[in-house]
Design a protein that fits this description.
alpha+beta, 24% helix, four-stranded antiparallel beta sheet, 8 helices, Chorismate synthase, AroC fold, 344 residues, homotetramer
Chain lengths: 344, 344, 344, 344
């Protein structure tokens, strides 16, 4: 349940204000060069504290290899990466324990785990755990860059497979700065849309019937907190189109299409064109605004405001996390398709 | 890969123009009454041939129990349900084998399976296999109706859990008839949007981190052919909202919320309110229009038109399939949560 | 639970006196030639009715392909093989329903499935289901024969991998005929020991930590009814040996060993030498002798004798079943190790 | 592959001379009291250094909870337990890297992982990892002790389920001291037999077809290094018996049997009697004797002796490990059977 993947299998663990968060990866091929430095750029992209609209909480976020690395290379045995939690202010959360925060997992977690859950900072439900996803993504991206097109592939590339996500809308504005400014002015949190593009992906990934590329990608994507929707290619707009508009004519023998309404997937299988999809990120639940909600202590609906340090627009931090889960899913598909070897 | 579920586990098989399609269900609780009659209403809803906009192919679609039923009750052993394919016209497909149909899996299936795939009528990729999903859904729905609210649940119901899906838009029109009429007039296929609502669902379903309700539902939903997007609650609209607008205030101790922008899921866990989500269905790839695409034989892009019998708007047949996969997913969650017993 | 395997995945179903038994195989590579004739020799080996000591029940046992085969080749989609049950005499079993047969699953099945189980002839617990295992084994063996040694392998072979099992003891006698004769004279059923040898297996199969070759093989082997023990290489005799006796000296750079006490597995991984293991088969529970046991109707312990047609020595029919599960396990390991391609 | 279990799922990681070994448990019910003290007795039983015949390597072996525990109780989120490796003498191993040790995984690990494996002390293949199994076993045993018999169970117990393993033979001697003395005198390592008994186990655990109690237990057991065989109930002796001798007459309505040749399992399902099985442990591969084997450097077979600290009889340390994997397997079965709740 806290695991994902068939061959490149993640096991995630940890809590926001517990001792650590981490990821255990089973099935990582042997012989991949791996150092702390490899992780820093993506960890930096994820980090809050340096940009308008993100939380001032700062963690050093240095990955600690606890197993699976020897002489700076992966061994083929399970890879365990730990992040210590140093910069926690649990007192903030203790104070408002009487209000299960709307939009957060506080209420459902309490019911589901009988009150035994670590509630501090959202505990195991916290966005803090995405640091572990990003770490897994770093490993996966390194593997993807090693994949070379074979002779049947449409996009022969010397750079392997690249995964890139970016914000394309905040608060309904195509200009993210403008959308963020709206939130700052309204003293409210705000949502956004993130788009992910993958280039260099070989044809033939994905498995009928239940493990279509869309199925497995969406499964992983909805593990990221705050995601409310996903669409591939033209997505929801496809529902308004005619078939003759939507179909992508095939124009050469490697499967290149004139248009890419399908977003690179047909019948659940990658078709050799760019993979394109978008996700909707809801506004951060912890808005600075005063809210009305149930007070567990009194049993009444009362006003309160959320304490703690939070992002005004969590979408800002999502792209690198989205890249990570995408890279992880594709790595798993490539191993399944025998396009990544078990020893490099 | 053709399997889905942890406890209530589906194995789907078959091809459009092969001998049969079917479903094998492992983990169905023992003691569920099950007769052919139970299946007829949903199979009828799925069937084409009776409604404007759906294919004239008619199958008798009678489920044949090959294992797992004894004295009209499930035994707890694997349940295998077969549907014979009687009404196939493979010649139609043979004729256009030289054109891999745009929007269909023809091209990718050929590459992925090395030309060994059963290409007739889309083979294993065909929408024909949804008859097997619908059958699994019938079993799952019967189980859901037996689930009784416990004392902590918000929605004490004597009718168990109900799953209902309906078309809410065709070709961009809120009035499905109007949207369909547009397609008939344009002599083109058309897409649509389907919404699914689940009432009576207990709080606490779904598992952190990777098996959120959205994760597992979307995984199953994208196994349905022609789906291009999914959104929960306010979905993509959430990306344009402020946090104070989007948050659902909790108003009582069972978790009832004033609004339901979350669509019944918070932190990946059901919160006891109605589960609501929507999916985008692309226009049927087999449009009656003449198309330009690659001719495998000549290696050139040429005009052709799709033969065979097809739906003008495949979305019309999706609601019962969407209900089926939803019911299957929820059944699995309920077994995992020990809210359905293994012997009834 | 009725599934087995990661990549070459079996789903077994059916009951002894139900409509059919069968196997669904997900993950079989595309392009394997497969005809009914391929199955006949192994099905014949398994069949009772022709040999002293086996049941007079005769089934035609013709495999019916319900999916996954097209133009006599596997398609890469799930392969479903059905066997009809024609020659059933359920009345025999009905008669003695009041006695849960000692050594059989009657009692536990009744408790576990709340009385809903199909009890006729042992239902889903019957040895009849091994016909489905044998069918899966035929497919797996065909794949194994295609595996060619690579340059590092110890046993370069043009015949691929071979799996052969044989009875090495019946009723404590090394001469099976002699052991069987003892049983005939005693008018009692009798047990035996079966040994399996695999030649041509490449080095490196098996996965630490939990998926050692022994782990996965024994998992599969204990799915065969009536098995009470398994030992690899010297097995239980190893417990009486000194380390200097038991260790197999490595004598060349491909891993050949002077002796093979390890039975071809070290550290859970195949070492390139012959894989050798043995299993203990208990005497058929349905002995012709009169037994004392609980009568469910009266609640008393009473004398009764088992009706129905049964094997005097079920071990006689085990070798081909043991080969089958062994071949299935090895196929799965070879796919995992990328030594069998997904398209042939 | 380094994972085991359906519901109570272990992920094991670490290397003998790496930074740490550990276990991640997903699916542990919430609300189980858990402190470091709970682990000490079983960790002590496993530890070498205090008994004749075991390695002088001493680790403090204090479990460190990295996630999943809050206020001394499990939270329902993944439980991660780490053991630091402090007392390593890798230089010993470095010295004999030129000889792949017979009976060890050195040779196969090198081939399988392309030389990237952490070879120090056996790396991921080391018996050191059993400390992580023992830790998982402590958690499982605490859960088993909470299981109460229900009204249909044969063995109403106020103490829950108990799991106990003991050495019953060393070097062929029923008196372990005598067998060990033989080894000390011969200056050689020696094997042994360990028996495990489980009392209080409810009827109905285990799943047809592939997840029989024997299947899943043996799968887990063969993950323990040095195991060469397993037998249930009368085991290999059953192969020499007549059916009328071997069958266990049922003597009451809860399934009690007069004898227990079946070892508590019929048809793969627990029958409410004591579960009894035995395993064969080979002599420690690292014998003090001089051995002949391949020298990787020279390519010749040469004499060498194994350096490092080792057990003369590894079987001495196996009982607590065997209890651990048994407890883990039974916990998983009990969760599957809904006889352990997800919140305590």
């Amino acid at each position: 349940m806290n695991s994902f993947g068939r061959f490149f299998r993640l096991n995630i663990f940890g809590e926001s204000h517990g001792e650590s968060v981490g990821i255990n990866i089973d099935g990582c091929p042997a012989g991949l060069s791996l150092t702390v430095e490899d992780f820093l750029p993506d960890l930096e992209r994820r980090k809050g504290g340096t940009r308008k609209g993100t939380t001032p909480r700062k963690e050093s976020d240095l990955p600690i290899f606890k197993s699976g690395v020897f002489n700076d290379k992966t061994t083929g045995a399970p890879l365990t990466i730990l992040f210590e939690n140093n910069n926690t202010r649990s007192a903030d959360y203790q104070k408002q324990r009487d209000f299960p925060r709307p939009g957060h997992a506080d209420f459902v977690a309490h019911q589901k785990f009988g009150g035994y859950e670590d509630f501090r900072g959202g505990g195991h439900f916290s966005g803090r755990l995405t640091v572990a996803l990003v770490a897994a993504g770093v490993v996966a991206k390194k593997l993807l860059r090693l994949v070379r097109a074979d002779k049947n592939d449409k996009t022969p590339s010397d750079n392997g497979i690249s995964v890139q996500a970016a914000i394309i809308e905040i608060g309904g504005e195509r200009d993210p700065e403008k959308g963020l400014q709206k939130a700052v002015e309204a003293k409210d949190s705000v949502g956004g849309i993130v788009e992910c593009r993958v280039n260099g992906l070989p044809l033939g990934l994905g498995e009928p019937f239940f493990d279509s590329v869309e199925s497995v990608l969406s499964h992983a994507v909805f593990a990221i907190p705050a995601i409310r929707g996903i669409e591939f290619g033209t997505g929801f707009a496809a529902a308004k189109m005619f078939g003759s508009q939507h179909n992508d004519p095939i124009i050469d023998e490697r499967g290149a299409t004139l248009t890419n309404h399908a977003g690179g997937i047909v019948g659940g299988i990658s078709n050799g064109n760019a993979l394109v999809f978008r996700i909707a990120v809801k506004p951060t639940s912890s808005t600075p605004k005063i809210q009305e909600s149930l007070n567990w202590e009194t049993g009444n609906v009362e006003s309160f405001s959320v304490k703690g340090r939070h992002d005004l627009c969590i979408a800002l931090r999502v792209p690198v996390v989205l890249e990570a889960v995408t890279a992880v899913v594709l790595t798993d598909f490539l191993l399944t398709a025998q396009k990544i070897s078990r020893v490099l």
